[in-house]
Structure prediction request, 271 residues.
Amino acid sequence: MLVLCGAGVGGGSHVYGNTMYVPSRKFFDPPEWAGITDWADDLAPHIDRARRMLGVVRYPYLPTDVDRYMQQVATEMGRGETFNKTPVGVYFGRPGVEADDPYFGAARPRRTGCISCGNCNNGCGHNAKNKLTTNYLYLAEKLGGQVHDLNEVYDLAPLDGGGFEVRTRHPGWAKRAAHRRHDSYTAEQVIVAAHAYGSSKLLHHMLHRPSLVEQRGGGGQLAGEQERAHPPVKRHRKLGHRAHLPYQRYITPRKQLPVLVVPQVRGGDAG
Prediction:
C-alpha cells in the first residue's frame, strides 16, 4: 500500500473531483446528536450559502457514450430516475477564455472557462476550479484575515484562563527534524478541520490529554469513498472521447450510495 498525503493553502479543494453533493436527511440524524436540533433544517441555509460561494452548477455538457451506458445500467436496476448530472464547483463560461469574477460582481479573482482537460484532481492548472483560494480564503484575506501557510498544527493545549494554545511547525521533514520553524498561537475557540487523516492524526496525538479530547464530542461522521479500478479492456472506437471532468454523471442504486464512472481518458488525471 502506498499512502501519499500533502498540505496546501486551500486544503482538499485543490485535489478533489469538484463534486458537491448535499447529504440526504438520514446523514443528519445519527443517534449521537439527533436530539439536539433538526440539523438538516438548521444547516440548510449554510449549505446553500456554501454552494453559492463555491459556484456549484450541474455539469452542463451532453452525455458521452459512457454516461449513456451508465443510464442504461441504472434503468435495468430499476433506478433509472436517479441518473443525473453531477453538481460540481467549476466555472465553465467560455472554454479557455478569462473573465471577471462571475459570482460576486468581480470581487474575487478573474476566472478562466473550463477546457475539459480532466486534470481536476491535480489542482486544475487552468483557473477553472472553484478552490477555496478563489472564494472563502481570498475574501477572508481581503477583510483582514490572516492565512499562516507552511504551518502544521501538531498540538493543542488548553489555557488556564480558557481558550487554547495552538502549536505549529514547518511541515517539511528536514526542518521538522531540526526543530526549526516552531510557532504558537492562542485562540478562544479552535475548529479542527484537517479532513480525515489530519484531524485523526492530531486528535490521536492528544490522547495524553483526556480532558481535552473529551471536549471534542462523543462521535463524528466521515464521508466514505471507495474506488475500484477495472482491468484494461480493448478500446472500442465508439467509446473513445476526449477528456472531460472526472465525475460527470451519477446514479444512486441505494440510498446514500451514489455511483460514478471515472473514465481514464487521454490527458486526464483521474482513473
Q: What stands out?
A: Strands lie at 56-58, 84-85, 87-89, 98-99, 111-112, 152-158, 164-169, 183-187, 249-254, 257-260. The first helix runs from residue 39 to 53.
